[in-house]
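Illustration 12: Glutaredoxin family protein.
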Amino acid sequence: MGRMSPLLRRASRPRLVTLVRKPGCHLCDDAEAVVSRVCADLGVSWEHKDITEDEELNRRYWEQIPVVLIDGEQHTFWRVDENRLRKALR
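Figure caption equivalent — predicted structure in token form:
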């Protein structure tokens, strides 16, 4: 039996979008609205993580929040482009 290509393996598993945010951040609120809408439309799971509660996320992303990760890889930061996010998740 042949081995599955990395692209097919990646496409066959469920996607996960992670929004890295902090309390009181208006850009984070805007990003959450876009992520929530796009993920609901496409049936993709998503979560949010508070940068103030995770030392590693704080160290990595403090100057970039909000940050959107897709399957653990950084997709974007500051402002979320809805069309670009949709395209990345299809």
